[in-house]
């Protein structure tokens, strides 16, 4: 019997969820079609740029999903389901600090090895409700939420056992793989079970995200995101097809310099018919607007220094836009041109971006070879290839969420925040949570050492804008 490795499980899982979501949200199919058109046209016009941040095959197949769970027990089970497909929790995101605040903390399950990412980079942004946070939920509502969430089953025991088996043996036999995919896909399908209208609306008054998590008996895909090479073109083409998009593209502005981090947009959440259980026990009809079609364009991964400066520039944009009243995209472009590194070389020089390095094969004169990274780059002995950003931006995620919420919700800022951080999450889900900066740095340092060694130099003898980690 054939054996299905985790990367293949991951690729099949992404395709299966894509097919499911396309039947549930037909506009998603349109989004995928337009994304493919944009990528094909971009590759034809700019062949030298199309694969700068990944092969066109990877970009075309790439998806990121988003789900929401109710508590740490459900998150730990989700970690097992995704772990079966070689997806590990990376990063910690606290959207309670967003504007408007959203009562969730999140992580992203994704491959962490470069070869695994190249085979299939499927990632799932997974948010967990923080029912203990008194800024959103009083003691009575917290208890009711915990009872409701504690009584439901998102992932059947058979699925969890198959997931554990895949984690243990790095894949599954064909029959087990088929069953895992069947159960895992079904776990994220929209439930036909009637929604308790009073309970749902009570949570919705606090947060639409809270009602989507704690107001229904199951979880579901909130969005499934294709990757596109020109998100501005995509935005215009979707509007031309009569699909209402959110007001803006989230993330860095479009400009002539290097693309960094992540740009995202979406079509607005569509009204989906649902059955509701009324107060008198009867079943009525209505609709919910909780799911939307997101699309993303990925750029270069930034170091912590680069990311800190990115956040600083966003604050400058906020202040300047508020003072001037000018359109935000116009202000952002102005700030980027003034303050953002204008080239990949400058990103390297300022230690703002992550890159892989490789020797070019240019002849080496041992006596005259520079012992400085930038001089080796400028002299053509090595080349730098950007490392694509594989993760998420809390502000952008919150912006997408907020653009698709049915209301602003309520927050009591007089109450203290409930402490939640990556250490807390890792301790309670029982698996290692990875720091994205450490993953990018490790990849960069391996390539650097290999490139420098091939030139006959000792890596620790070559000056770099960062400190190279000692090889294990």
TrEMBL record:
<dbReference type="GO" id="GO:0051213">
    <property type="term" value="F:dioxygenase activity"/>
</dbReference>
<dbReference type="InterPro" id="IPR047869">
    <property type="entry name" value="YdcJ_bac-like"/>
</dbReference>
<keyword id="KW-0408">Iron</keyword>
<keyword id="KW-0560">Oxidoreductase</keyword>
<dbReference type="Pfam" id="PF07063">
    <property type="entry name" value="HGLS"/>
</dbReference>
<comment type="similarity">
    <text>Belongs to the 2-oxoadipate dioxygenase/decarboxylase family.</text>
</comment>
<protein>
    <recommendedName>
        <fullName>2-oxoadipate dioxygenase/decarboxylase</fullName>
        <ecNumber>1.13.11.93</ecNumber>
    </recommendedName>
</protein>
<dbReference type="InterPro" id="IPR009770">
    <property type="entry name" value="HGLS"/>
</dbReference>
<keyword id="KW-0223">Dioxygenase</keyword>
């Amino acid at each position: 019997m054939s054996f299905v490795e985790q990367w293949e499980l991951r690729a099949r899982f992404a395709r299966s969820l894509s097919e499911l979501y396309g039947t549930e949200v037909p506009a998603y199919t349109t989004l995928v079609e337009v994304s493919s058109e944009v990528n094909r046209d971009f590759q034809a016009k700019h062949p030298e740029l199309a694969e700068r941040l990944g092969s066109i095959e990877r970009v075309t197949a790439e998806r990121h999903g988003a789900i929401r769970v109710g508590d740490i027990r459900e998150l730990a089970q989700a970690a097992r389901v995704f772990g079966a497909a070689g997806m590990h929790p990376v990063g910690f995101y606290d959207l309670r600090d967003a504007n408007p605040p959203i009562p969730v903390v999140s992580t992203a399950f994704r491959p962490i090895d470069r070869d695994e990412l190249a085979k299939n980079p499927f990632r799932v942004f997974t948010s967990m409700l923080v029912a203990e946070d008194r800024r959103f939920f009083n003691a009575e509502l917290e208890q009711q939420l915990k009872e409701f969430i504690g009584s439901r089953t998102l992932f059947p025991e058979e699925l969890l056992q198959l997931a554990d088996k895949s984690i243990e043996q790095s894949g599954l036999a064909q029959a087990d793989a088929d069953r895992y995919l069947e159960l895992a896909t079904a776990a994220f399908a929209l439930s036909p079970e009637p929604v308790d209208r009073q309970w749902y609306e009570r949570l919705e008054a606090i947060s639409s995200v809270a009602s989507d998590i704690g107001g229904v008996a199951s979880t579901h895909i909130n969005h499934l995101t294709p990757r596109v090479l020109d998100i501005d073109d995509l935005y215009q083409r979707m509007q031309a097809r009569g699909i209402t998009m959110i007001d803006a593209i989230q993330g860095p502005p479009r400009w002539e310099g290097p693309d960094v981090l992540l740009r995202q947009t979406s079509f607005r959440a569509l009204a989906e018919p649902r059955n509701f259980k009324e107060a008198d026990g009867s079943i009525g009809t209505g609709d919910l607007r909780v799911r939307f079609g997101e699309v993303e364009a990925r750029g270069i991964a930034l170091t912590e220094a680069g990311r800190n400066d990115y956040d600083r520039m966003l604050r400058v944009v906020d202040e300047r836009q508020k003072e001037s009243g000018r359109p935000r995209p116009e202000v952002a472009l102005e700030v980027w041109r003034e303050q953002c590194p204008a080239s990949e070389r400058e990103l390297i020089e300022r230690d703002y971006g992550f890159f892989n390095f490789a020797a070019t094969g240019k002849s080496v004169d041992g006596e005259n070879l520079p012992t400085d990274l930038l001089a080796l780059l400028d002299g053509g002995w090595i080349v730098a290839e950007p490392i694509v950003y594989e993760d998420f931006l809390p502000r952008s995620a919150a912006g997408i969420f907020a653009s698709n919420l049915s209301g602003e919700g309520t927050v009591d800022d007089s109450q203290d925040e409930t402490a939640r951080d990556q250490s807390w999450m890792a301790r309670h889900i029982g698996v290692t949570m990875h720091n994205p900066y450490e993953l990018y740095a490790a990849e960069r340092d391996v390539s650097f050492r290999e490139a420098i060694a091939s030139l006959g130099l000792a890596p620790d003898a070559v000056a770099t804008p960062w400190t190279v980690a000692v090889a294990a």
